Amino acid sequence: MKAVCFVKSVPDTETRVKLAGDRLDKSEIKYILNPYDEFAVEEAVRKKEAGIVDEIVVISMGPARAQEAIRSALAMGADRGVHIEDDALDGSDAYATAKVLVEAFKKEGGLDSFQLLLFGQRAIDGDTWTVPSMVAEMLGIPAVVGIVKLDIDGNKATAVRMVEGGEEVFEVELPAVFAGRKGLNEPRYPSLPNIMKAKRKPINKYSLADLGIDASTVGKAGSFTEVLKYELPPARQAGRKVEGEPEEVVEELIKFLKEEVQVL
Amino acid sequence: MIKNVDFMGLEEFLSEEEKIIRDTTRRFVENEVMPIIEDYYEKGEFPNELIKKIADLGLLGMTIPEEYGGAGASYFMYGLACQELEWCDSGLRSFVSVQNSLCMFPIYQYGSEEQKKKYLPGMARGEIIGCFGLTEPDAGSDPASMRTTAKKVKGGWVLNGNKTWITNSPIAHIAVVWARTEEGIRGFIVERGTEGFSTPEIKKKMSLRFSPTGEIVLEDCFVPDDNMLPGSVVGMKAPLSCLTRARYGIAWGAVGMAAYCFETALNYTKERIMFGKPIASFQLVQKDLADMFTEITKCQLLVYRLGRMFDEGKANHVHVSMAKRTCTMMAYNVAKKARELLGGNGISLEYHVIRHVMNAETTTTYEGTDKIHTLILGRYLTGMDAFR
Ligand SMILES: Cc1cc2nc3c(=O)[nH]c(=O)nc-3n(C[C@H](O)[C@H](O)[C@H](O)COP(=O)(O)OP(=O)(O)OC[C@H]3O[C@@H](n4cnc5c(N)ncnc54)[C@H](O)[C@@H]3O)c2cc1C
Fold first, then answer.
1. How large is the ipTM?
2. Does this chain's domain B10-124 share its CATH topology with B243-382?
3. Domain assignments of chain B as residue spans, ordered by start
4. pLDDT given for residue A239 in this prediction
5. What digits encode the pLDDT tens for the residues B16-48?
6. What would the pLDDT profile of A204-218 be if each residue is shown by its tens digit?
7. Is the CB of B13 under 6 A from ligand 1?
8. Which superfamily, per CATH, for B130-237?
9. From A65, A84, B47, B126, which residue has the greatest number of CB atoms within 10 Å?
């Protein structure tokens, strides 16, 4: 069977967020492959190594730098990439993004070709957690989001999710969407020989026109939500130290929790 | 173009693959080596488990073609990997430099087809570790004065002599040894287990403690004809061509060392409050930070250009001497400044900076001391040899 991994280029986890007015200052940001997407790619590569999957396609929508994220996934072991880039995509929210990903997926053969659709459960920048479910809904297939285990047997998959105090086990018929989280696997470091091989793997490029998408249905115009402005969280206040004998300290703490924090 | 220190915007001149190699190496050292380095450094040991992990990353045999188990990467990529490895530790980078430039390179460049097939794939997998024996107790800066001899006998050669200060010799499976024959200096591959071959470890080092160093003792050591490097023309040209590659990597590595120390000092001085203010707010401290930042940036530009020239075949050993000398001395000075700015904490292995200061004592010494590279530049400029 064939697998597709949807990936995103996001700011490095060590980025110190800076603002220019009420917009993000992106000038010094370094971008990486979304760490959650690495779980998806790693799982696909392991399924390929186990002989279950025979081709892994990586799809990403985004500006030129998205190609770096695709290349990282190819270096981990995916076979080829699909990059959707178009100026009109700027400002797309999760819904508009899902629409575009679905069209690119269909263009590559869609559900006739792919049985396994893998995502990271969230992207660490926008952090909406919604694109995997939206894509599944648009395609009319099941989605299990936040999985820590995935077993495949024929056209059936068993996926495990952690819930408070236990596990939730799903049996799903393929094709289906799965979104991974920490615990699913330990993503590998791409090795130097594989990085060199990734250089030669093909990446298909699509514009909106190639996908037959009307620009007015994506980007800002095609989105339900819009980011109005960015604000840094308020600077942390200095802490307060409670000193004295244990009895006094306890008393003062309780008073503080009751009167100032009002949690008691 | 090292993470967080790229004032001149070199990042935009890196290819996708180059960025992935750099970032993967950084992540590797952050996750796998930084958490254990202080303990190993203090004990003066190298963790053997690390070898397989380094090999799995493809860092052994980076520039060797795929058909011999290498990655077929460029020297620019090798430079980036060295930079990130030495951001962590010079000994770690030395391990990789020696295997790549001083052992796999001569076997690839000067070895027979049989030798390449026999050794290179295993070396790339980290199953065969090599070391490079050039320096002797009485032949350091002037290796051409070496006393180790190789005498032709029926079916092979008999080697006699002492090599010292040899990186990885205590853990090596093979040694690339340079010895004097009747016609001149030639290279030989000596396998561990050969009678008369031993590698006592050098203890009590206060620098490069993460890297095993030892001697190579050769006592009537017989090696078959097949173990001579047939392509090494008689003389110092072959060993020096290896050193040029290793020195190239040392220059890149030094930028990594300096960047680590600078970042640590910058963060520390912004947070450390003294006289009621962050120490970074004092003019004298800002002068140090500005100097460190500027010196690193200059060296980044140097190694970036050198790397491109190297891959285009335009760099020669003089370019490499300038870079090795300048970058290691820059890193030495930056590391010492950073140590000072960390106050008492600066001498603790926990902050890693003192380790870099100690390591810089080696990086400014091995593979040609600072003075020797100065003289190479002097000879290039004047045409006059001031070595003797
Ligand atoms: C940790 C470590 C690892 C090493 N690993 C290896 C290895 O793997 N393989 C290997 O072969 N070697 C290795 N070396 C050896 C290293 O390359 C030598 O130490 C170095 O070349 C200097 O030689 P020396 O120690 O004999 O010093 P010397 O040559 O005795 O130099 C002593 C001092 O005299 C100065 N000097 C020498 N000649 C001149 C001159 N003509 N004009 C002005 N000043 C001069 C030098 O600059 C230096 O300051 C290693 C060394 C160390 C410390």
1. 0.90
2. no
3. 10-124, 130-237, 243-382
4. 82
5. 999 999 999 999 999 999 999 999 999 999 999
6. 999 999 999 999 999
7. no
8. Butyryl-CoA Dehydrogenase, subunit A, domain 2 (2.40.110.10)
9. A84
* CA B257 to ligand 1 centroid distance, Å: 21
- CB of B167 within 6 A of ligand 1: the answer is yes
Q: Per DSSP, which regions of B225-323 are E strands?
A: 273-274, 277-278
Q: Is B67 on the interface with A (CB under 8 A)?
A: no
Encoded tokens for B71: 């990655």
Q: What is d(CA B191, CA B231) in angstroms, rounded to the nearest whole number?
A: 19
- Let me know if A21 is exposed, middle or buried by CB neighbors in 10 A (0-12, 13-18, 19+): exposed
- The fold of B243-382 is Butyryl-CoA Dehydrogenase, subunit A; domain 3 (1.20.140)
| Cβ–Cβ gap A191/B21 under 8 Å | no
Q: How far apart, in whole angstroms, are the C-alpha atoms of residue A144 and residue B225?
A: 65
Residue A5: how many other CB atoms lie within 10 Å? 29
The reply to whether B219 belongs to the active site is: no
Please write down the long-range contacts of B275-282, taking CB distance under 8 Å and 24 or more positions apart: B279/B341
| Alpha-carbon distances, residue B374 vs A238, B316, B319, B321, B371 (angstroms) | 54, 15, 12, 8, 5
Entry pTM: 0.92
CA distances from B291 to A222, B117, B327 (A): 51, 49, 14
What span, in angstroms and rounded, lies between the C-alpha atoms of B339 and B345? 8
Q: In the block, which residue shows the tokens 């690839």?
A: B108
Buried b (16+ CB within 10 A) or exposed e, B99-125: bbbbbbbbbbbbbeeebbebbbbbbbe
Low-confidence ranges of chain B (pLDDT < 50): none
DSSP-derived 3-state class of residue A178: strand
The architecture of the domain spanning B10-124 is Orthogonal Bundle (1.10)
The H or E element that residue B129 is part of is none
pLDDT, one tens digit per residue, over A33-85 is: 999 999 999 999 999 999 999 999 999 999 999 999 999 999 999 999 999 99
Contact across the interface for B73 and A75, Cβ inside 8 Å? no
Residue nearest to atom 20 of ligand 1 (CA): B366
Amino acid in position A254: I
Whether B269 lines ligand 1, by a CB cut-off of 6 Å, is no
Answer whether residue A190 shows pLDDT above 90. Answer: yes
Neighbours of A30 (CB within 10 A): 16
Q: Measure CB to CB from residue A195 to each of B11, B21, B66 and give the nearest one.
A: B21
Q: What pLDDT, on a 0 to 100 scale, did the predictor assign at position A263?
A: 81
* Backbone dihedral angles phi then psi of residue B63, each to the nearest 5 degrees: -95, 0
Residue B53 C-alpha, separation from nearest chain A C-alpha, in angstroms: 10
Taking CA atoms only, the protein residue closest to ligand 1 atom 31 is B141
Pairing status of strand B156-167 against strand A114-120: unpaired
Structural Rg of chain A based on CA atoms: 22
* Degrees, nearest 5: CA angle B162-B165-B166: 85
* Residue B291 backbone phi and psi in degrees, to 5: -65, -45
